# Entry
Amino acid sequence: MRKYIFQILSKFLKIGVGIIISAFLLLQCKAEEVQFCDVFVSGEGGFKSIRIPSVVVSTKGTILAFAEGRAANADQAQNKIILKRSVDNGNKWGEMQIIADDGRNSLNNPCAVVEKNSGKIILFYQSYPEKLPERSKKLEPGYDGTNIVRSYMIYSDDDGLNWSKPRDLTKTIKNKDATILASGPGIGIQLQKGQYKGRLIMPFNEGHFGKWYVLSVYSDDFGEKWKLGEPAPGSIITDEKNQEISLVNEVQMVELSDGSVMLNSRKWGGRALRKIAISKDGGTTWSKITEDPALRDNGCMASIYAYSHNGKYCIMFSHPDSVRRENGTIRISFDDGKTWQIKKVLYKGGFAYSVLTSLPDGTIGCLFEADNYKRIAFAKFSFQWLTESKNE
# Structure
């Protein structure tokens, strides 16, 4: 009898523990059509603010989420570059790593890419001198001195567990007259088609504050040597007051179905629309900057990403579809961005910078800043969920 009672009690205990575990997991990652998990939360690791996401998936299927860990709620606040990894398709995330630290200088604009032949994970970022934010008139052009912005590259060849020492690429990829340069933020791409197949492209803006132009930095030898492309014409215009102003700023790039490349930039000037241009030579030169009338923009970084489903090629775009940084929306184009046939709301609350990626199980991931920058969340959803209804 005692044995029988003990077996019953054990069974109920296991059920109770299972319920508790299930409830805990639901809190960590909601079991809905779209699954949401927090990756970074402001205050974590002693960082008052955590912003500016980048996410890639390694050739081994590991998801790597990057961000800036900031000492204060400011763009340049002694930022460090931080990383978390997931080896189970984004359900759980490992401990935070600081992978780049420049003391009291501020590290900005993490922009990652995976070189698929070697599996090497490459990350670009910039270093701002202490107490000299991007608006500072004390920032100087050129390559030498203490008052310049520098650009660095680090890489990992062991799936993000360890990282190389920073490599200073300032003289290679910074125009000598520029005081500011910024990679992405977001991700770079590796071309998969045509004459420039295998080329790595990192999106950049350079110039002086308020007078940026967009261009690419590219490598044809798997990330060993880098070259600076030509600025997209029309990046800077003369306004009605006869003053120069930039139309563009933070930029991402995507490969189109014919192997050409499209850039997609947030607006600085002009109408509240995304700015675009096309390159037919692998990002070396560009057509003149124009505006996409279908993609409204409130001046926020957005993501553009090439995706293939059952052999059908499309482009995905994520952005805050509002006059404010909220109402995170995913769009799909099946004609290389000429039109956007599908539109679906991913997250109705606060939604700022975002980055899309393909996950190992065939679903889609979106790493985004949520709820007034309180956290950086990761959303997982299927292509079927995204396309089951149009134009919500």
